[in-house]
Amino acid sequence: MKTLSLLAALCACGVAAAQPADTVLVNGKIHTLDAQSSVVEALAIRGERIVALGRFQQVKPLIARKTAVIDLHGRTVIPGLIDSHMHAIRAALSFATEVNWIGAKSIGEALARLSEAARTRKPGDWLIVAGGWTPEQFAEQRRPTQAELSAAAPDNPVYVQLFYGWAMLTPKGFAALGIKDDKDVPPAGKLERDASGALSGGVSGNSATITGLFARLPKPSFDEQVDGTKKFFHELNRLGLTGVIDPGGFGMPPANYRALQRVWQNGELTLRVAFSIFGQGRGRELEDDQALTQLLPMGFGDKWLRFNGIGENVAWGVYNVDNPSEAAREQFYQICKWAAQQGMSLNIHWHHDASVGVVLDTFERVNREIPIWRLRWAIAHLEDASPATLERMKALGVGWAMQDAGYFEGEEQLKEKGADAVRRMPPLNTALRIGVHVGAGTDAHRVMSYNPWVALQWMLDGKTVGGHALRGPEETPTREAALRMYTQGSAWFAFAEQERGSLEVGKLADLVVLSKDYFSVPIEEIGGIEAVRTMVGGRVVYANR
Ligand SMILES: [Zn+2]
Fold first, then answer.
1. How far is 86 from 447, CA to CA, in rounded Å?
2. Per-residue DSSP letters for 149-210?
């Protein structure tokens, strides 16, 4: 009703003039992503919401002396991007104290970033690259050597992590951690040696090895965590993100949420965060969830920071375990049932379609007792989801948080699954046809880059970071469909699609002015798009000049 009367007022050019807009954007190509895919030239904001959009004449009556009028000079505007699965809270803690290799095109460029960081830190301070890169992104197509790292930062211990299976330390790094031999590294870890038997600097192992090794590095102080949170969210704003859905992560006890809470309390959040709690203690997942949620009911929070249920680790016994024991399945069922009873959302990380019955059988069992379709449970990853799986998800109202894993891991997927399978990975068009809610994202940051434009480009061309086009046209969405997955598609997972994800009167003014026109540039240029200006709730959170 409110919306209708406001529109009527606008047409009459009467009442509206009495309530001027705070900000008006004019002379743009504003892609609203409303049901009609309307593209308009002007948009007006009052407070945190959009109050009018359309032709310039329609917003003109809202312009008063106090109104900030922004001439877009024909630039493209889209709704703010939302990542449906990013470990953003954890990434933020160390963002101010880590070195970032995301997007570096050569080893030289990556090493220059290390040298640059060394100049701003004290000798002896750690320089940490905690993932987010792959050898395929470098022109040299290889990992750096220890000698290169030492030369780039001769006075600092250096730690460089590749996915969750390998890390490299400089001699200063080994000395600082007291590592001389295989027995000094976490279980299953091995120090790599060259042909002469000398240590090469590499440490190989499984994810427990690398997580354990990382845990031995110094932690940022609370102030550094707060600083990192603000800086990381600003970095995401630079790329047009206005929201994330955060699934916790390894090593994320409640104390690790304090920096985020401090930024929120201070009114300094520039990104909307919906977070779930990741089971930290093996064997006491349900007890922990019950204790933590006594003061944290589903949906608790505000438009900036909101509690969004449990996951991505619901129960250790079925966390990416293709063949769990009966006891583990039963424990998983008990937790899912409890979550359903509490009206709690739930998300789970799963890799292989062949074993996804572990998850879906349990969801269906719970659903027979307590309907879950309103609760927006979700499965993350599952790049090879079959049509049958997607049909089961649709029937349960379970959403699919899809990431661009194939961008970094496509070559691995090709080896593991074969060319026919990767042609339809991930099956984006099939999911949309079946009617599953799909949210796009990255799963950043230890493994993946957080850059949404790299993910969008990959959604459209299926090309890995090494340049191999693997996906076929049958599962390649249109530009608009891909963007909808990255906006309103993801908003659904935070119960927020009525508030954001499209630009319409009454919705929150979360929007991005783009450096290039996403809809018309060649696809290979999409990965290089940035925000010129990002607004969240009508507030400018990023402007590049
Ligand atoms: Zn994840």
1. 11
2. HHHH-TTS-EEEEETTTEEEE-HHHHHHHT--SGGGSPTT-EEEE-TTS-EEEEEE--HHHH
Contacts for 14 with CB less than 8 Å, ≥ 6 apart: none
Rounded Cα distance, 410 and 429, in Å:
19
Q: How many angstroms is it from 251 CA to the middle of ligand 1?
A: 13
Say if strands 166-169 and 347-350 run parallel, antiparallel, or are unpaired: unpaired
**Predicted local confidence at residue 447, as pLDDT:** 66
H or E element in which residue 245 lies: strand 241-246
Residues 355 and 322 sit within 8 Å (Cβ to Cβ): yes
Q: Across residues 160-184, what is the average pLDDT?
A: 95
66 vs 61: CA distance, rounded Å: 13
Instruction: Determine how β-strand 42-46 pairs with β-strand 49-54.
Output: antiparallel
Give me the mean pLDDT over the 85-91 stretch. 95
In degrees, rounded to 5, the angle at the alpha carbon of residue 464 between the alpha carbons of residues 460 and 470 is 70
Longest dimension (CA), the chain: 84
- The CB-side HSE value for 382 (13 A sphere, CA atoms) comes to 35
Residue 425 Cα distances to 146, 322, 380, 463, 470, angstroms: 36, 19, 14, 12, 8
- For residue 11, pLDDT over 80 is answered with no
pLDDT of residue 7 exceeding 70, the answer is no
CA gap 400, 348 in Å, rounded: 10
Confidence of residue 251 (pLDDT cuts 50, 70, 90): confident
What letters, b where the CB count within 10 A reaches 16 and e where it falls short, cover 110-146? bbebbeebbeeeeeebbbbbbbbbbebbbeeeebbeb
Cα gap 409→175, rounded to integer Å: 33
Q: Which two tokens stand for residue 350?
A: 């799963």
Torsion angle defined by CA atoms of residues 413, 416, 419 and 425, in that order, rounded to the nearest 10 degrees: -40
Assess whether the previous peptide bond of 312 is cis (omega < 30° from 0).
Answer: yes
77 three-state secondary structure: strand
Tokens 């951690």 sit on residue? 177
Please give the Cα distance from 506 to 112 (Å, whole number): 47
Q: What is the rounded average pLDDT of the residues 303-307? A: 98
CA of 444 to the centre of ligand 1 (A): 7
Distance 97 CA to ligand 1 centre (A): 22
The Å distance, Cα 312 to ligand 1 centre, comes to 7
- pTM of this structure: 0.89
Cα 403 to averaged position of ligand 1 atoms, centre (Å)? 9
- Whole-number average pLDDT of the chain: 93
Give residue 48's pLDDT band: very low, low, confident or very high (50, 70, 90).
very high
Residue 311 Cα to ligand 1 middle (Å): 9
CA of 295 to the centre of ligand 1 (A): 25
